[in-house]
Design a protein that fits this description.
Mean pLDDT of chain A: 95
InterPro entries (chains A, B): PsdUridine_synth_cat_dom_sf, PsdUridine_synth_TruA, PsdUridine_synth_TruA_a/b_dom, PsdUridine_synth_TruA_C, TruA/RsuA/RluB/E/F_N
CATH class of the largest domain in chain A: Alpha Beta
CATH superfamily of the largest domain in chain A: Pseudouridine synthase I, catalytic domain, C-terminal subdomain
Enzyme class (chains A, B): isomerase
Distance between the termini of chain A: 21 Å
Largest sheet of chain A: 10 strands, mixed
Keywords (chains A, B): Isomerase, tRNA processing
Oligomer: homodimer
Helix content of chain A: 10-25%
Family (chains A, B): Belongs to the tRNA pseudouridine synthase TruA family.
Largest interface: A-B, 23 and 23 residues
Number of helices of chain A: 5
Number of domains of chain A: 2
Low-confidence stretches of chain A: none
Radius of gyration of chain A: 19 Å
Order of helices and strands of chain A: EHEEHEEEHEEEHHE
Domain Pseudouridine synthase I TruA alpha/beta (chains A, B): 9-100, 143-245
């Protein structure tokens, strides 16, 4: 069996997240159906992370096993003709037998986008968190800086998924503004459930003066979710990069 | 009665164009319902042009008459809270009694966007014409240049609307590429039905060698729609600017 890694992008608006569910349409299910047509047998995809409903991916990796001999360079176009326009396979790479899109992933980057303008933008519905009250990106950036490093992130974790430990390492967390758009880019070895959205909500709280950036080390130590800021809404969140110990992936 | 001009933007994906119709949901109808709530009486809007189903506007102007004394600077937020997210009023300006969004308009600019990449982009569904075969934007630009000036544009006009004359003046028509995105910007004193989309289709034909840029003067003289290229699809078309003899509008 060949093990194939797909690089993809998707607009998550129409989907109930990545992971296959019983009732709702998900990205994985939609992709698996399209792949099955191309390779001629049922397919099971392993994704790099369980993105929530409404969350997007500019870059995402999933792998599947197949008996098909279709060349990798023909897979993207073949699958894309069977996919709706909001899911696109950009590349297929044959990977070692033991490769697993989630287990082999060394680092991931998410970008959270806040449209901080008094007036909405008609083209950004479902693509950003529209926040009409002015935010101070410098205060937010100072708050974000306190999350960088190896910490117990229990205070920015929503319950709902099992995990052995709540300790993670955040490699960088930058917050910058271009015009009305605030981009929060955060890279870590792994993320707890809702961790990015809770950290962004906490940075927004800091800009609003509801807590001080310097309170964050104490919040991390306290491990109490209710001490930190609220969870930012899903539509502003994008998976934007991934790192694997495999050449040319993603 | 005050005469108020609204500057707006809309993502046309969900609408059957600007103009009120019997059966389908249009931008004008949606806007008129929201305005009626704000001013407390039924409202009739005159728009700057009858955009087709699926066509967008980064900038658009419509005017309406009202007995309400609501200050102009309070209108955008008041109307936007009653509008769906894909229609946004960005400004309201009191204009002279005889102002009419279509009749007073001196020039309009449309931008047509072609996403010219072998692979689709999941975030540009309904926002561009996805064209996977490589286009030569320099050939397209040479073709576009032949449309500039005062001509009879019957060869790039679809039937369907009444007009006294098919003579129009195109002020500029530039075609440029940034990465995979080709932008066709055209400004004229007025446009015939489907004129931008037919001119873009003709420029694409020129890139494909199905006609030469130098054939265009002959096509214009011939006045025969079937001699020119096909009508490009609606979702790549955006109204992007308008000019009025009124200060600060739009």
């Amino acid at each position: 069996m060949r093990n194939i890694a797909l690089t993809l992008m998707y607009d998550g608006t129409a989907y109930h997240g990545w992971q296959v569910q019983k009732r709702d349409v998900t990205v994985a299910e939609t992709l698996e159906k399209a792949l099955a047509h191309v390779v001629g047998h049922p397919v099971k995809c392993t994704g790099a992370g369980r993105t929530d409903a409404g969350v997007h991916a500019e870059r995402y990796v999933a792998n599947f096993r197949t008996t098909s001999s279709i060349p990798c360079d023909r897979i993207p176009l073949a699958v894309n003709t069977r996919l709706p326009g909001d899911i696109v396979v950009t590349k297929a790479t044959q990977v070692p037998e033991d490769f697993n899109a989630i287990g082999s992933c060394q680092r991931k980057e998410y970008t959270y986008r806040i449209y901080n303008s008094r007036i909405r933008n008609a083209f950004l519905v479902n693509r950003v968190w529209f926040y009409p009250k002015h935010l101070d990106e410098e205060v937010m950036a100072r708050a974000a800086q306190h999350f960088v490093g190896t910490h117990d992130f229990a205070c920015v974790r929503s319950v709902g998924t099992e995990t052995k430990t709540t300790v993670r390492t955040v490699h960088y967390f930058t917050i910058t503004r271009e015009g009305d758009m605030i981009s929060c880019r955060v890279c870590a070895d792994g993320f707890l459930y809702n961790m990015v959205r809770a950290m962004v909500g906490t940075c927004v709280y800091a800009s609003e003066g509801k807590l001080s950036p310097d309170d964050i080390p104490g919040l991390l130590e306290g491990r109490n979710r209710t001490d930190a800021g609220p969870t930012a809404p899903p539509q502003g969140l994008y998976m934007t990069n991934l790192w694997y110990p495999v050449p040319n992936l993603p």
